[in-house]
Design brief:
The strands form three sheets. The chain has a five-stranded parallel β-sheet, sandwiched between helices. A three-stranded antiparallel β-sheet has the order 7-6-9, covered by helices on one side. Strands 8-10 form a two-stranded antiparallel sheet. The two termini are about 30 Å apart. Helices cover about 40% and strands about 15% of the residues. It is elongated and about 85 Å long. By secondary structure, it is an alpha/beta fold. The protein has one domain: 3-Layer(aba) Sandwich (Rossmann fold), CATH 3.40.50.1110. The chain contains 15 helices and ten strands. A hairpin with a 3-residue loop joins strand 6 and strand 7.
Length: about 400
């Protein structure tokens, strides 16, 4: 069986590969120009896998410029392990870059001196994973500017931020750019009929609005003398989270519609991989601590503090390391009785990129991506030649 698999894999290479084998040079043949260095494949039987896209496959850094996870734990690397464990000799070239837009993908050189688009074409990969969309101008603000406002409990401003993205985001540009990008990848299928392209959707890193609502009463009650002002402010957070969720869904639906067209046109060579459901119970942490001191005439000062995690108990989202610390003077006064004389807040654990568990799940989702069975399209692993059924719930 192994010999027959390798024979099928080898037939996808050009005659130039045979010559390269005898000369002991890299075997992947560039369509134009020189290959990016280093060439990820060194043996004639190895199958190139190229990962392109933004900070998700890149493994985004924290605000202090430390790595959120190691390169070996990123989902393209984890996916390569799964493919190799199935006795298929895939070799990975992870060409992704942090904060990549569709324009960056097509026009901006990576540290190899080549664009991600040229790498995805010239390496003639058997498998490509594409993660693009969330870093687009304005759309990115829902995991950046809006998140900072939430960390500082500026929920009115955060809601305005989220609504501006949902209603005014560059959704048409994303549709048009992805159509062009996937069209470039589809051009190679005439020479590489076994090639598969997995286009990634996105997870919602924020907690569900309905889960947050249930925590607000107990959180504010611990503050005792500022319960009303605390409650009024925090009841403004759930609507923000609803809009954030709608942004993720709109982002995914925009990507999915483009992928569907190419899946039909290429008889199932393109796959949409949506991690939304798998991550829903594994959102970010959102650990909030508020401290207050209230003066009660004539000579009593009462401290009242509250501490609550509004996020998920089993998070798959890495903290970005940036804490919210704006003192809540903008909403806690006045106290019911007495005078609020001191208050601080710290909000930690929030972030937008997967941790190691999240990356492992993303790899499993790609590996088990299903084709449109109604049109007779095979699961991705079978498209690649792996004789296994796709799992329904791989994470």
């Amino acid at each position: 069986m192994r010999a027959s698999r390798l024979a099928v894999a080898t037939t996808t290479f050009s005659v130039a590969v045979v010559t390269a084998m005898s000369l002991h040079v890299p075997v992947v043949v560039a369509a134009s120009g020189d290959l990016p260095m280093p060439d990820p494949c060194g043996k004639p039987i190895e199958l190139p896998y190229v990962a392109v896209g933004d900070g998700v496959p890149f493994g985004a850094k924290k605000v202090d410029d430390t790595n959120a996870i190691s390169e070996a734990e990123r989902f393209p690397e984890e996916l390569t392990k799964l493919l190799q464990a199935a006795n298929f000799p895939f070799c990975l070239h992870n060409a992704s870059q942090g904060e990549t837009t569709t324009d960056d993908y097509q026009d901006e050189d990576t540290d190899t001196g080549f664009t991600q688009q040229s790498i995805a074409h010239d390496l003639r990969p058997r498998l490509v994973t594409v993660t693009l969309g969330r870093e687009q101008d304005l759309i990115r603000e829902h995991i950046d500017k809006c998140m900072t406002l939430i960390k500082n409990h500026q929920f009115i401003e955060a809601n305005a931020c989220a609504l501006a993205i949902y209603t005014g985001g560059p959704w048409k540009k994303l549709n048009d750019d992805l159509s062009e990008i996937l069209g470039q990848l589809a051009q190679d299928l005439a020479d590489h009929p076994y090639k598969a392209v997995a286009v990634m959707g996105y997870y919602n890193p924020y907690p569900r609005a309905e889960d947050v609502i249930t925590e607000i009463a107990s959180f504010c009650s611990d503050l005792q003398d500022t319960i009303p002002t605390c409650t009024i402010r925090w009841m403004l957070l759930p609507p923000v989270l609803v809009t954030m969720d709608q942004i993720t869904k709109k982002l995914n639906s925009t990507i999915e519609e483009v992928v569907k067209k190419f899946s039909l046109a290429t008889q199932g060579s393109f796959y949409f991989v949506n991690p939304y459901d798998a991550f829903e119970d594994h959102c970010m942490e959102m650990q909030v601590q508020i401290q207050t001191q209230v003066y009660h005439p004539t000579n009593t000062v009462h401290p009242h503090n509250s501490d609550e995690d509004f996020g998920c108990s089993d998070p798959w989202i890495e903290s970005d390391g940036d804490a919210g610390q704006l003192p809540p003077w903008h909403y806690l006064p006045p106290a019911v009785t007495g005078v609020l004389v001191f208050t601080t807040q710290t909000t930690t654990g929030m972030g937008a990129y997967p941790d190691t568990d999240g990356h492992e799940c993303l790899a499993k989702l790609v590996y088990n991506a299903k084709g449109d069975a109604n049109n007779g399209f095979k699961p991705l692993k079978q498209k690649l030649g792996i004789p296994e059924e796709a799992e329904d719930d791989p994470c």
